[in-house]
């Protein structure tokens, strides 16, 4: 199946490859039903990205690799081919083509302004969402109306969509005044360590390593997926993180024996620790594991855990232990205390029940510390007592 060919619009043969990593190890992966009929779906055996034939054509027709934008252009050309004689349809085709061209120009502008890849992907996603719900990107009132009618969207999603469109409108000289969206702050859900460990134990090796890394260090999942083998120092049990998200502070993190052993066991396919795995693939795998374990363990709370939840868990545990906001700020890589104030509200939600353990040697004490146990005291018999919140 890998490396098979398909015809592009010019009748030439184009090698089918993954739009995400451009690998040719492609397998068929079911059929997607659309209003225009069945569309063959594929999955990349290298990075796990799923796509359809239309995605491949879109990737080939856009030099910047903007699949969603190119899909608009592809739809426009298809409309022209089907009904070129209808004036109304021709108008819709011109509008779709204009939208695709202007969105591509805008994303190119953001790239020249040195905006991050994640930002570009986010902007492309939101502009695609607006186009999908029928918003006319050249008419700001149409955009407001369509956003307002999305009952399934939370206010934060509406605010982000409006903010992204405001940048697009400004770039195209369109006056746009964003509606006001009231975002109510929420206390993040903090699972128990037992629930997190259940997810780790029930996950495949690479996903389990990612979850263990997020649990012990509190870094963002994007930062974890960007780590390179050269940034890990297994001899001194630490790693350096220079590639941060949201302009976070670069920092060094220790590696426990357990985490070091887990990470060193991963296959070294390229310079990145997690290979070509991207966020979309790892999230899809995680959601499937989470759903399966929630059913198996009869614990619906597992379905509330996301990658970012482990960052909240690590931060709340550290604040509970140290009562030091500067320490938590440094742990998370934030630049101001306001970003970590939420964790002061989470301490009282922690369980008052503890697991107890004893250590008779320094090696036993070290292992308990690496597994999250806190030292309590030493008895007259030279036995060290430890505890860990349930």
Summarize it.
The protein is α+β, with helices and mostly antiparallel strands.
Describe the 3D structure.
This protein has 390 residues and is α+β, with helices and mostly antiparallel strands. The chain folds into four domains: 1-61, N-terminal domain of TfIIb; 65-184, no CATH class; 193-349, Orthogonal Bundle (hpI Integrase, Chain A); 354-389, no CATH class. The chain has helices at 53-61, 67-82, 87-112, 117-132, 140-148, 155-171, 193-201, 205-217, 221-225, 257-264, 279-297, 307-322, 325-332, 362-370, and strands spanning 5-7, 13-15, 26-34, 37-44, 50-52, 232-233, 238-241, 251-254, 354-359, 374-378, 384-389. The strands form four sheets. Strands 3-4-5 form a three-stranded antiparallel beta sheet. Helix 1 packs across helix 2. The protein is globular and about 80 Å long.
Write the layout of secondary structure elements.
Blueprint (H helix, E strand, L loop, with lengths): L4 E3 L5 E3 L10 E9 L2 E8 L5 E3 H9 L5 H16 L4 H26 L4 H16 L7 H9 L6 H17 L21 H9 L3 H13 L3 H5 L6 E2 L4 E4 L9 E4 L2 H8 L14 H19 L9 H16 L2 H8 L21 E6 L2 H9 L3 E5 L5 E6 L1
Antiparallel strand pairs: 1-2, 3-4, 4-5, 6-7, 7-8, 9-11, 10-11
What features would you highlight for this structure?
single chain; 390 residues; alpha+beta; N-terminal domain of TfIIb; hpI Integrase, Chain A; 4 domains; three-stranded antiparallel sheet; 14 helices; disordered N terminus
């Amino acid at each position: 199946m890998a490396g098979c060919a398909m015809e592009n619009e010019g009748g030439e043969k184009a090698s089918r490859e993954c739009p995400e990593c451009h690998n040719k190890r492609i397998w068929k992966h079911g059929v997607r039903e659309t209003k225009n009929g069945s569309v063959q779906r594929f999955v990349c055996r290298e990075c796990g990205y799923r796509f359809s034939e239309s995605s491949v054509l879109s990737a080939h027709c856009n030099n910047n690799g903007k699949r969603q934008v190119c899909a608009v252009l592809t739809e426009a050309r298809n409309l022209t081919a089907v009904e070129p004689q209808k004036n109304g349809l021709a108008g819709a085709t011109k509008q779709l083509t204009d939208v695709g061209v202007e969105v591509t120009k805008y994303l190119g502008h953001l790239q020249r302004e040195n905006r991050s890849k994640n930002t570009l992907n986010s902007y492309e996603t939101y502009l695609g969402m607006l186009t999908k719900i029928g918003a006319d990107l050249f008419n700001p009132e149409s955009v407001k109306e369509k956003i307002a009618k999305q009952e399934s969207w939370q206010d934060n999603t509406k605010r982000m969509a409006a903010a992204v469109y405001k940048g697009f409108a400004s770039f195209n000289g369109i006056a746009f005044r964003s509606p006001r969206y009231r975002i109510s702050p929420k206390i993040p859900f903090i699972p128990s360590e037992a629930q997190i460990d259940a997810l780790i134990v029930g996950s495949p090796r690479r996903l389990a390593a990612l979850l263990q890394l997020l649990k012990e260090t509190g870094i963002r999942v994007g930062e974890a997926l960007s780590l390179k083998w050269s940034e890990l120092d297994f001899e001194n049990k630490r790693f350096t993180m220079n590639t941060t998200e949201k302009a976070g502070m670069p920092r060094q993190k220790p590696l426990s024996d357990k985490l070091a052993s887990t990470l060193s066991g991963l296959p070294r396919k390229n310079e990145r620790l997690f290979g070509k795995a991207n966020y979309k693939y790892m999230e899809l795998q995680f959601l499937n594991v989470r759903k399966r374990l929630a059913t198996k363990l009869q614990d619906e709370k597992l379905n509330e855990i996301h990658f970012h939840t482990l960052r909240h868990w690590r931060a709340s545990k550290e604040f509970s232990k140290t009562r030091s906001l500067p320490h938590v700020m440094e742990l998370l890589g934030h630049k101001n205390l306001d970003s970590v104030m939420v964790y002061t509200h989470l301490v009282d939600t922690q369980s008052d029940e503890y697991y107890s353990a004893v250590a008779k040697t320094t090696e036993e004490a070290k292992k308990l510390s690496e597994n999250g146990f806190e030292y309590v005291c030493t008895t007259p018999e030279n036995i060290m007592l430890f505890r860990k919140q349930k």
